[in-house]
């Protein structure tokens, strides 16, 4: 009996390290004095929580899966107050890492970097063959070396000042919810994971050679292209105000869809979109300018262009499209079939009727020629806000317009106040009539915090809708889920960081007066 007890005790002792629970290591506030010391003490599965403060460090991640975060990564104020300054490292060709954070490349997706402001990195120093002069490689803010770590809710700014190295390089995990703003090099280079819900603004380029899914990002005000030389799907982004062009070199058989492509390019710039073998569908492409010798959209003959609104653009001496491309089911200003005079099925030249183009609200008004006039596009099942496509916006039933699918043209799928009000009437047990408002905005009702419906607008005439039309999500029930689906088109909070962007589309670059800016 004693021998059995000794054996069990010995096994527990030998396995104790494996059985131990993950630890939480605290930096600041009486814990570790530096972030790197905590990283060096951590083991796989540990979490490091960093108190607000200004940390002058160049962090080196050891290739294990740890969580390194601020106290509240979702709190903008906390993120702004938890700063890692990577600009003070002494130069060395041997171990002189001058990126703010450098990964080993062996980390998996459960390794997380979240909730910091990263500033003043330069990249990794190394000597070149036959030239001992200082050279740099790697991302100035984050150098991933191929890591699969998750990079989320950070502000990455003011990096790469001396050598214009990219802010983030070779990070192949999910990059989500970050503000990658006002860096001196490109925002992201060679990052092949999912790039979602980031603001990528006022850098040299936005994204270069990033070959994963790129979705729900704001890519704005970069000195050259918004997106350049990439293989991968690009959907539901706002790509605006980039000085040379929006998308240059999407080399894939993937898709560019549901994007707002607004105000990009200049007279000396290139085409606003350059792509090969791609599907370009359900984008709203307005107020852009291509170079004097460039078409607005430069694509090869195997590219499909459907369901786009192309309006208010300027494209110099070249045609809108090259001759071998024939768009279909688009709204195109002054379209005449191009050089070959091939009109293309379903194309329109009538004004799209945006809600408020002057304030950059490019949703469709009731009566817009784009409602239900598109074609079904495989894989495009939602709009830029996640609203289900198709939606019978003109209430004529499937098959009445367009190719019969009820797909709308442009980035937004139109839903009607008529239908929303009809669902409201049904849920409240009132007669199955739809109540129309005097204008599409605001809705004549809203949901309060308890889920109750309240009337907030002027009610007018009535009309009757079928049960099938009321079942928006097609689950065979007419219920609260249906009204939420309709309300979602106009009232739901936009995916971060779209909410702020919706209130103010053009923001000033924070470089000049930023609180982290040093006097040098």
Classification by helices and strands = alpha/beta
Q: Main sheet?
A: 12 strands, parallel
The chain-level mean pLDDT equals 77
Give the helix tally: 7
Major sheet strand order: 1-2-5-8-13-16-19-22-25-28-31-34
The general outline is: elongated
* Number of strand segments: 42
Uncertain regions spanning at least 5 consecutive residues: 1-18, 429-465, 487-520
How far apart are the termini? 74 Å
Percent of residues in β-strands:
25-35%
**From the structure provided, what is the oligomeric state, counting identical versus distinct chains?**
single chain
Helix share, percent: 10-25%
What is this entry, summarized?
With 520 residues, the chain is of the alpha/beta class. Residues 1-18, 429-465 and 487-520 have low confidence and may be disordered.
């Amino acid at each position: 009996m004693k021998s059995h007890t000794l054996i069990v005790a010995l096994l527990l002792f030998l396995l104790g390290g494996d059985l131990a629970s993950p630890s939480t290591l605290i930096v600041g506030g009486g814990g570790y004095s530096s972030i790197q010391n905590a990283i060096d003490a951590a083991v796989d599965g540990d979490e490091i929580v960093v108190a607000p403060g200004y940390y002058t460090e160049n962090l080196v991640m050891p290739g294990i899966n740890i969580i390194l975060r601020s106290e509240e990564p979702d709190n903008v104020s906390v993120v702004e107050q938890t700063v890692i300054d990577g600009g003070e490292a002494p130069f060395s060709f041997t171990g002189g890492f001058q990126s703010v954070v450098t990964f080993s490349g062996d980390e998996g997706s459960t390794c997380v970097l979240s909730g910091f402001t990263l500033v003043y990195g330069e990249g990794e120093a190394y000597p070149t063959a036959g030239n001992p002069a200082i050279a740099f490689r790697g991302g100035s803010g984050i150098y991933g070396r191929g890591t699969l770590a998750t990079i989320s809710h950070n502000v990455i700014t003011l990096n790469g000042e001396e050598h214009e190295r990219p802010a983030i390089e070779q990070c192949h995990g999910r990059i989500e919810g970050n503000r990658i703003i006002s860096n001196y090099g490109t925002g992201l280079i060679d990052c092949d994971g999912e790039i979602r819900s980031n603001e990528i603004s006022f850098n040299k380029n936005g994204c270069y050679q990033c070959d994963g899914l790129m979705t729900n990002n704001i890519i704005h005000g970069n000195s050259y292209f918004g997106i350049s030389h990439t293989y991968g799907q690009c959907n539901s982004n706002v790509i605006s105000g980039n000085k040379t062009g929006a998308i240059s070199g999407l080399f894939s058989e993937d898709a560019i869809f549901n994007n707002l492509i607004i105000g990009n390019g200049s007279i000396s710039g290139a085409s606003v979109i350059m792509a090969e073998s791609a599907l370009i569908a359900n984008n709203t492409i307005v107020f852009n300018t291509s170079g004097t010798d460039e078409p607005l959209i430069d694509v090869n003959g195997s590219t499909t262009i459907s369901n786009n609104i192309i309006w208010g653009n300027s494209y110099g001496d070249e045609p809108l499209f090259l001759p071998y491309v024939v768009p279909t089911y688009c709204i195109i200003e002054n379209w005449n079939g191009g050089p070959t005079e091939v009109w293309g099925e379903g194309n329109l030249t009538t004004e799209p009727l945006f809600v408020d183009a002057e304030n950059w609200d490019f949703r469709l008004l009731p009566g817009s020629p784009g409602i239900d006039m598109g074609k079904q596009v495989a894989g495009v099942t939602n709009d830029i806000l996640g609203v289900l496509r198709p939606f019978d916006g003109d209430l004529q039933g499937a098959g009445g317009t367009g190719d019969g699918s009820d797909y709308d043209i442009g980035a937004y799928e139109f839903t009607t106040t008529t239908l929303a009000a009809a669902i409201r009437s049904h849920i409240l047990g009132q007669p199955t009539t739809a109540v129309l408002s005097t204008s599409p905005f605001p809705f004549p009702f809203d949901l309060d915090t308890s889920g109750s419906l309240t009337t907030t607008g002027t009610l007018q005439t009535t009309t009757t809708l079928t049960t099938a039309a009321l079942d928006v999500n097609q689950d065979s029930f007419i219920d609260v889920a249906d009204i939420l689906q309709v309300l979602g088109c106009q009232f739901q909070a936009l995916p971060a960081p779209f909410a702020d962007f919706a209130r103010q589309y053009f923001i000033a670059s924070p470089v000049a007066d930023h609180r982290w800016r040093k006097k040098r």
